[in-house]
C-alpha cells in the first residue's frame, strides 16, 4: 500500500515517524550524559522533556546549566539538529504535501477520442505539428509520462493525460475510436505503445518517430503505419542547403546555357545597395542584371517592384550575363561557391549531413569536441583557434549541427563574427529558437520540429501544412499574352513576384533589352521565381511550357 503513495506523502510519514524517534534518542543520551558526565542525574521523563524543548526550539525551563564540555557540545549539536528540522520541515515535507492536495489533478484516462489525434509523449519533434493541429482546428490529446511536462502542457491549454503505460495499461481504454496515433518516445517505448494500441483493437493510422532507422522495419511489423526518422531528414535538408550538388539553388538553371548565370551576393551594411529601393537603383538599366529577390531570415522575398527595398545582410539573388554580374561585385560580396563545407557537431544529425555531402562528392571538414576518427578537428567551435584549424574562412558553407539550441545560437554569433561572408546553416531543436538563430546571423535555420511537422501534417492533413523551405525555379515558357510587350514591362513583378531574366530568340539567348524591344510570338521566355509565383505568372499571362529545348549559340552570334 505504501508503495502506491506519492513521494510527498511518503516524506510526510517519514517526518512524523522521525520526530518521536529523534526526541527519544536525544532524551536517552541526555539522561546518560547528565548522570555519568555532569554527575547530576535526571530521570527519563525530564530528559525526554528537555529533548522535545530543544528539538522544537521552544526553550528551557530549569534545564539550562551544564559544566562539562562534552555535555555542552552535545547540547549544541542537538540544538542544531532542531534547527535543521525547523528549516526543512515546511519546504521539504509540508508544502509539497499540501500542494499536491490542493492543485488540480491531472486526468489519468483518455477522454472520448472520436475525431481526436492521440500524441504519445511531447517533444521538439511534434511541437510544430501541435501548433498546426490547433491552427486547423483538429482536436488532439497528449499522453505524457513526465508530470512536470504534463503540467506545463496543461498550462499552455493542451488537453493532457498523465500516467505510465507500463504501470497503468488501462489508460489506453477508448483509443479504438481515435482519428490517428502519433508516438514520439524512445524506440522501445514507441514499440510498446504501438503493440498496446493494436492489442486494444485500434485499426487506424499509427505514425512513429524513430531515433534509429534500423528500427523502422520492426516497428512497421508490429503495427506502425509509417515510421520516420526526423533527425536524419533534418540532416538531409541541411546538407541540401549547403551543397548545390545535392539540391541546386535554382532549379532548371542549366536551361540558360553558359552565357547567363544566377549569382548570390551578400549585401554588407556599408554597401551602396543596403536599404535602397529597386526603383532607385535601376539595376537593369545601369548594370544589365535582374534582381530575382533576396533571402533574409531564412525566407525568400521576391522582388515585387520598384518599391522593393534591399535589406542589409540579406543574400541577394541576381541574374544576368557573367560580365554584368561581375559589376555587381563592386557593391556586394559574392558568396563563395568553392571550398570545403565545415560541419560542426558530429551527432546523429551531423553524421547524416556529412554522409550526404560526401556521397555527393563534397569535401568536408568535421569539428567535434569529442575525439572521433571521422572528426578532422577536435575542439570547441566557439574557439577561434578551432575555427582557424578548420579553415572556416575558406569554406563554401558552415553547417552547425549542435544538439543544444543555446550553444547553437552562441556558436552562430561567433562564426558569423569570425567569417562574415560564409554561408551559415544551423540546426535547431525547438522551432521558436529559429528566430534567435537568424538574429544571431544564420542564413538558414531548420528545426527538427519543422521537418517532423511537415512529414506528419502531410500524412494527417493530406497537405503540405508546414513548409520547411522555399525553392527557386527557372521555367522556360511560351510568351502567352506578353507578345508585343516588353520583358521588363511594369506589372510582371507586382502581379506575380517573378522576373523574366532572358529571352531565347532563334538560337540566341538575350539578357539585355532596350526600350524598343518587343516579345515575338515565337520567342521563348525564361521566368524565375518560386513555385507559387510561377503558377501565378502562368495564369496571369496565359503562358504554357515551351516545347523545344534551348540551344544557345556562343556569345557574339546574332539571331
From TrEMBL:
GO biological process assignments: potassium ion transport
GO molecular function, one term: monoatomic cation transmembrane transporter activity
Pfam families per record: TrkA_C, TrkA_N
Keywords of the record: Ion channel, Ion transport, Membrane, Transmembrane, Transmembrane helix, Transport
RCK N-terminal domain: residues covered: 338-446
Keyword Transmembrane helix: yes
Every RCK C-terminal domain range: 250-334
Highest taxon of source: Bacteria
UniProt KW Transit peptide keyword: no
Transmembrane segments: 12-32, 70-95
Name of the molecule in the record: Voltage-gated potassium channel
